[in-house]
Amino acid sequence: MVRGVDPRRLLVLLAVEAEGSLTGAATRLGMTQQAVSQQVSRLEAEAGTTLLVRQGRGSALTEAGRVLAERAEQLADVLRAAEEDLAALSGLVRGDVALAAFPTASAVLLPRALAALADRAPGLSVRLTEAEPPEAEAAVRAGRVSLALVFRYEGDPEPVPGDLLRLPLGRHPVHAVVPAGERAPGHLADLADRPWIAGCPRCRAHLVRCAAAAGFTPDVRLETDDHVAVQHLVAARLGVALLPVWALRASSAPGVLHGPVGGLDARVVELLLRPESRRVPAVRALAEELRRGVTELDGAS
What start-end ranges are recorded for coiled-coil regions in this protein (predicted)? Predict the structure, then answer.
């Protein structure tokens, strides 16, 4: 590390790299854009070189900036570890915990779970970032969040063991969604000759895998991650779709019929976290509340 560099300014630089702009870093850090710009300018003066250049509407790090950002990431890891050690020693459920979760979890699980947690631990503040499973996993690994709610399907290959703990929380079924007035299909193969509406890459891969097992290749005409849009497209008789029960519970549109069919496996909800985070009372409290909430939801499915 360059002598004379203020480590607090390194963390500001790290936020700029993560957000891709001074404005984004300011929002993340709770500072003004002018204050972030001043911190970066002073850091450049301390380092004796340019660390940041404008790029389109954002900012990009120079080679020297990237070198310092790598050191800043190490510094952030040390500070997070120190905070977790202190929290574990104090045994108090308080402070901030960052959580990443996929959209349907944000809609049906988190409002109840976080409200219950606020009653049990009023000193604990949860910061939520919405992210699909790959991005949420990367956020835990990079230390941007402490916990991530992710999903996969029962028929997917088992995840390769890695540096993160993967705690299963529950499972819920996936339903076929067809226009109202139609006869409910008994098996996925009954929908082989229909046009399809697909969702996120992981959901589309699930559709393709299950369809292949049922003996057909789905004719995907429309794609959207919005489960409300999916239902309205089905209601307009533009195709059929698969949706997890949680998505249907979050919002049920008129003009569609949904239900379980043969040939589909369930969606599994899991919690990802770094092993050392389990020692932190605040992280444990959030994890326990999420487990409780998933159990209640899946029990009602």
Answer: none
CA distance 99 to 129: 6
Query: Burial code of 50-62, b = ≥16 C-beta within 10 A, e = fewer?
Result: ebbeeeeeebebe
| Helical segments of 20-148, H only | 22-29, 33-47, 63-90, 103-108, 110-120, 133-142
In order of 27, 225, 246, 260, the CA distances from 202 in angstroms are 30, 11, 16, 19
Distance of CA 118 to the CA centre of its chain: 21
User: Which DSSP letter does residue 279 get?
Assistant: G
Report for 85-99, 167-181, 281-295: range of highest mean pLDDT: 167-181
Which pLDDT band holds residue 26 (cuts at 50, 70, 90)? Answer: confident
Q: Are 50 and 62 a contacting pair, CB within 8 Å?
A: yes
- Global confidence as pTM: 0.69
Mean pLDDT over each residue of the chain, to the nearest integer: 87
Span 174-265 CATH architecture? 3-Layer(aba) Sandwich (3.40)
**Tokens for 179?**
């226009």
> Which residues, in sequence order, are bridge partners of residue 171?
268
Strand partners, 60: 53
Show the DSSP H helices in the chain as ranges: 7-19, 22-29, 33-47, 63-90, 103-108, 110-120, 133-142, 201-213, 227-235, 245-250, 281-299
Rg (CA), the chain: 23
**Is CATH 3.30.70.860 correct for 7-86?**
no
Do 174-265 and 96-167+275-299 have the same topology in CATH?
yes
Position 1 scores a pLDDT of: 43
